[in-house]
Design brief:
It is a single chain. This protein is mainly alpha-helical. About 65% of the residues lie in helices and about 5% in strands. It has two domains: about 5-45 and about 170-370, no CATH class; about 50-150, abc type-2 transporter like domain (abc type-2 transporter like fold, 3-Layer(aba) Sandwich). It has helices at about 5-20, 20-30, 35-40, 60-70, 85-90, 105-110, 125-150, 170-205, 205-210, 215-245, 255-280, 285-300, 310-320, 320-335, 340-370; strands at about 50-55, 80, 95-100, 120. The protein has a four-stranded mixed beta sheet, covered by helices on one side. Strand 1, helix 4 and strand 2 form a beta-alpha-beta unit. The chain starts with a helix and ends with a helix.
Length: about 375
């Protein structure tokens, strides 16, 4: 049986080695602070203060209602321009959208005709152009339909009431920050454990451990619990001080339950990092192997695209990845406030996957150690 005292002291040695490595410490701090902030605030797919201009050649009650329908935070307050100012403003990038309301627009709507509105879009701003085009069309249709019903005295049809839970305004920063911390847990746990093993091999300290009364199992467990502890503490501090404190995103789910899910995922991902560290012979090789492993894992685990949208073969293969179950459990806890009664299947899956990864990594680690002896 592994000696608990040996595992503890070996773990303390790993923590001191990490503290004395300024580059790894910088990566840890940045990933749990700056990377979370960038994912929340800089990478956004929703509209936020988009500049828009309106040419109102009708000057009617309906056109005034259309102008007032565009307001912050999705759009900036519309600027009223003349027709000659539209092209220079669009060419210079001052405005992303420009709406032209032709003369007699309200008169044609009252007469039951189908007048044309012109929407100019600066498609060089690809994300805003694609998303904003749909928003603007819906806003225009809603205002015209509401005016038509008021003008004709018609009884309005069924009203669709939308209830958006957790994030009523659909702020992408809320999703971005919480999704990113799930990704960071996976990335950092693999990188740290693999890097510590390769660093010991490059510095020659792994040979020192071989002459000590410790077993490969104790060495591996010490790396797993120390790097897992670092990532777990980083996750907690990032949730409390970066996501809730700095960015101001509310978390309605249970943070302790999320940390339990994180610990189970770390059991598997740190073992995967050890396995990759036994294959790679240097840090450049480990970096290349990490790209080949982490990119598919993060892209296909359901964090970017829903898992059910993927081919059935990919879905079955990704059931072997701990990140798939961690993303499902983490989103359920942080987004929907799910309890243990809802996420226990993902917890059980992470335990089974983690045990398999640990066994394979331990076998590979023992084999690599025996070759050095």
């Amino acid at each position: 049986m592994p000696n608990i005292k040996h595992i503890y002291h070996l773990g303390i040695k790993e923590l001191w080695s990490l503290i004395r490595d300024p580059m790894l410490m910088f990566v840890v701090v940045f990933m749990f602070t700056g990377q979370i902030f960038i994912a929340a605030m800089a990478i956004t797919e929703t509209l936020h203060k988009v500049p828009i201009a309106i040419v109102d050649e009708d000057a009617s009650q309906l056109s005034a209602a259309i102008v007032s329908a565009f307001y912050p935070p999705r759009f900036q307050s519309p600027e009223l321009l003349s027709m000659n100012e539209v092209d220079p403003g669009m060419d210079s990038g001052t405005y992303t959208f420009a709406i032209v309301i032709p003369p007699g627009f309200e008169r044609d709507v009252r007469a039951g005709r189908s007048p044309a509105l012109q929407l100019n879009v600066d498609a060089t701003r690809m994300t805003q152009a694609f998303t904003g085009n749909g928003y603007i069309q819906q806003i225009l249709l809603d205002e015209i339909n509401a005016f038509f019903h008021r003008d004709k005295g018609a009884v309005p049809g069924p009203n669709l009431v939308i209830r958006t839970l957790y994030n009523p305004n659909l702020e992408s920063s809320w999703f971005g920050a919480l999704n990113e911390i799930i990704n960071v847990v996976t990335i950092m746990s693999i990188i740290l454990t693999g890097a510590t093993l390769i660093r010991e091999r490059e510095h020659g300290t792994i040979e020192h451990l071989l002459v000590m009364p410790v077993t490969p199992t104790e060495i591996m467990i010490s790396k797993v619990w120390t790097m897992g502890l670092v990532v777990l503490c980083g996750s907690f501090l990032s949730l409390k001080f970066v996501i809730q404190g700095w960015i101001g995103i509310p978390i309605h789910g249970s943070i302790p339950l999320f940390l339990c899910a994180t610990a189970l995922c770390l059991f598997a991902t740190t073992s995967l990092g050890i396995f990759m560290g036994t294959i790679a012979r240097s840090m450049p090789q480990f970096g290349m192997l990490g790209i080949l492993t982490l990119v598919p894992m993060l892209m296909l685990s359901g964090g970017v695209t829903p898992l059910e949208n993927m081919p059935l073969l990919i879905q079955r293969i990704m059931m072997l990845a701990p990140s798939t179950h961690f993303i499902a459990a983490g989103r359920g806890i942080l987004f929907r406030g799910a309890g243990i009664e809802s996420v226990w299947p993902q917890f059980l899956a992470m335990v089974l996957v983690g045990a398999a990864y640990f066994a394979v990594a331990l076998f590979r680690f023992r084999k690599s150690i025996s070759l050095m002896a």
